[in-house]
Write a structure and sequence with these properties.
Family: Belongs to the class-I pyridoxal-phosphate-dependent aminotransferase family.
Protein name: PLP-dependent transferase
CATH architecture of the largest domain: 3-Layer(aba) Sandwich
Strand content: 15-25%
CATH superfamily of the largest domain: Type I PLP-dependent aspartate aminotransferase-like (Major domain)
CATH class of the largest domain: Alpha Beta
CATH topology of the largest domain: Aspartate Aminotransferase, domain 2
Cofactor: pyridoxal 5'-phosphate
Number of helices: 13
Oligomer: single chain
Organism: Cristinia sonorae
Largest sheet: 8 strands, mixed
Pfam family, one: Aminotran_1_2
Structural class: alpha/beta
Strand order of the largest sheet: 3-10-9-8-7-4-5-6
Helix content: 25-40%
Length: 443
C-alpha cells in the first residue's frame, strides 16, 4: 500500500470545512502574481520592493554546531545572494529552498511525497499557523473536539471564536479514543458533529503523554466515519525519548491506510533549532492549506525572510541526516533532564504526588495528594499561593482545561533547570504541599 500513489479527495469536498471568514477572504492581487517573477527573461514591474542597495546590513557570518560532534563548529558566511533573500520580501509560503528541504524531511520522517495532493507552508512558528487554521475552519457556534488537558496557548483561539468546545479525555497513553467514539456515537441528531479535532500526539504540553499506535488508528478511523479533520500539532516530535520505537504520526498513518486527506500536520523548529527564529511549517490537503495561505497574505504577508535564510543556511550544510543526528542528541539531553527531575520527585515528593513518566517533551504532569486519603482536591491555591510563597513558580492544572474546571493536577517544566535547582525546587514544593494540607486546601 505504501508504494501506491494516493491523492486527497477533490477540492469541492473540503468546502464544508472552511469557515465563512475563510470563504470571504480574497487573494492578494500582488502576491498571487509574485511566483511569475521567477520566469526567465521576465522584467517585473509588479512589486514595490525596496532596493536592496539601500539596506545597511552588508554581510553576516556565524557558526553552527556540528550535528555529529557537539565540540566542533561549522563556520557559515551568507553569500550576497543569500543575504539579499533574507533582507527582502519573499513568498507567502516560504522561501523555495527551505520549502524544498522541508518537503524532503516530511518524506523521510513520514513517508509523504509531494505528488499526493498535499502542500507545505512555512509560518512564523506553529502558533501562527494554528491560529490561521482555527480561524479558517471554524465558525462561531461550531462544535470542536479538543483533547484535555491541552496547551493553554491554543485554548483562547477556540474560546475567542465562541465555538462549542467538547473536551476529549486523555491519560498516560494519550487521547482516549474509546471515549471519543462514545461521544460521537451518542451525538444529538439535531446538532452537527464537530468537523475539527485538535491533538498534540507526542510529549503533549502539559501531560508529556505520547499517543499509542492503537489509539491513533482508532482516531483516524473515526475521522473517516464521522467526517472530521485532525489538527496534528506536533512541536515535540523530534524530542521523543521513549524506550519503545516512536509510533507513526497521523500524517504517516493516513498514508499507510491509503486514505489520505484528513490530517493537517503542524511542525516546529523551535524545540530543536531555535525558538527565537519563530519558524514552523504545516502540511495538509491543498484546499485547506490554501485557506491558511490566504490568511497569511491578508495578515502578515509571509514568514520572516531572514529567519528562514538563517535556518536553511544551517540545515542545508547539515543535510537531513545531520539534522536527524542533531535531534537525536537533543532528545537524549531532555531524557536526562527528565530522569533528574523524576529522581528528585521520588526523593522529595513520594506519597505527596503521583505522575506518569513522560516519553517526550519538557513537562511533568503530577497530581497533588492534598488529603491524607488521596481524594481529589484542587491544585489552584497550593500552586499559586503556597508554592509561590515558598519560592516555586509552576502552573495549576486548571489553566490546561478549556472548561477551567478544578483539578488536583499541576505542571512543571524541567527543560531549563540544573540538578541543584531541581532538587531545591522540589524540596520547596514539598513544603508547599504540606502547608496546603495543614490549611485544608481542597478547593
Amino acid at each position: 500500500m505504501g508504494d501506491l500513489v494516493h491523492v486527497c479527495p477533490p477540492e469541492a469536498f473540503y468546502q464544508q470545512f472552511l469557515s465563512q471568514l475563510s470563504i470571504n477572504r480574497t487573494d492578494d492581487a500582488i502576491r498571487a502574481l509574485m511566483p511569475l517573477e521567477s520566469r526567465p527573461g521576465l522584467i517585473s514591474l509588479l512589486v514595490g520592493k525596496p532596493n536592496t542597495s539601500c539596506f545597511p546590513i552588508k554581510s553576516l557570518s556565524f557558526s553552527a554546531q556540528d550535528p555529529c560532534d557537539s565540540s566542533k563548529e561549522i563556520p557559515i558566511t551568507l553569500s550576497p545572494e543569500e543575504l539579499e533573500v533574507g533582507l527582502q520580501y519573499s513568498p507567502t509560503t516560504g522561501i523555495p529552498n527551505l520549502v524544498d528541504w522541508l518537503y524532503k524531511l516530511q518524506e523521510i520522517c513520514h513517508g509523504r511525497k509531494r505528488s499526493e495532493g498535499w502542500k507545505l507552508s512555512v509560518g512564523n512558528g506553529c502558533q501562527d499557523l494554528m491560529y490561521k487554521a482555527v480561524t479558517s475552519f471554524i465558525n462561531p457556534g461550531d462544535s470542536v473536539f479538543l483533547e484535555a488537558p491541552m496547551y493553554p496557548g491554543v485554548i483562547p483561539m477556540f474560546q475567542t471564536i465562541q465555538c462549542d468546545i467538547h473536551e476529549v479525555e486523555t491519560d498516560a497513553n494519550g487521547m482516549c479514543s474509546h471515549k471519543l467514539r462514545q461521544m460521537l456515537e451518542n451525538w444529538p441528531t439535531s446538532k452537527p458533529k464537530p468537523k475539527i479535532l485538535y491533538t498534540v500526539p507526542y510529549g503533549c504540553n502539559p501531560t508529556g503523554m505520547t499517543v499509542s499506535l492503537e489509539r491513533r488508528l482508532e482516531v483516524l478511523d473515526l475521522a473517516h466515519e464521522h467526517n472530521f479533520i485532525i489538527l496534528e500539532d506536533d512541536p515535540y516530535y523530534f524530542v521523543y525519548y521513549g524506550k519503545a520505537p516512536r509510533p507513526p504520526s497521523y500524517f504517516e498513518l493516513e498514508k499507510q491506510q491509503g486514505r489520505i486527506g484528513r490530517v493537517i500536520r503542524f511542525d516546529s523548529l523551535s524545540k530543536v533549532l531555535s525558538s527565537g527564529l519563530r519558524l514552523g511549517f504545516a502540511s495538509g490537503p491543498l484546499p485547506l492549506m490554501r485557506a491558511i495561505d490566504r490568511h497569511s497574505t491578508n495578515a502578515n504577508l509571509q514568514p520572516n525572510s531572514m529567519a528562514q535564510v538563517l535556518a536553511i543556511s544551517v540545515l542545508s550544510r547539515w543535510g537531513h541526516e545531520g539534522f536527524l543526528a542533531h535531534t537525536t542528541r537533543v532528545a537524549q539531553f531532555y531524557r536526562e533532564k527528565r530522569d533528574i527531575f523524576e529522581a528528585a520527585l521520588r526523593r522529595h515528593l513520594t506519597g505527596l504526588v503521583e505522575w506518569s513518566s513522560p516519553e517526550s517533551g519538557f513537562f511533568i504532569w503530577f497530581k497533588l495528594l492534598l488529603t491524607e486519603d488521596g481524594t481529589d482536591g484542587c491544585s489552584e491555591a497550593a500552586i499559586r499561593t503556597h508554592a509561590f510563597e515558598r519560592g516555586v513558580l509552576a502552573l495549576p492544572g486548571t489553566v490546561f482545561l478549556p472548561s477551567g474546571r478544578k483539578t488536583a493536577y499541576a505542571r512543571a517544566s524541567f527543560s531549563q533547570l540544573e540538578p541543584d535547582q531541581v532538587d531545591e525546587a522540589l524540596r520547596r514544593l514539598k513544603e508547599a504541599i504540606l502547608d496546603a494540607r495543614k490549611t485544608g486546601c481542597k478547593e
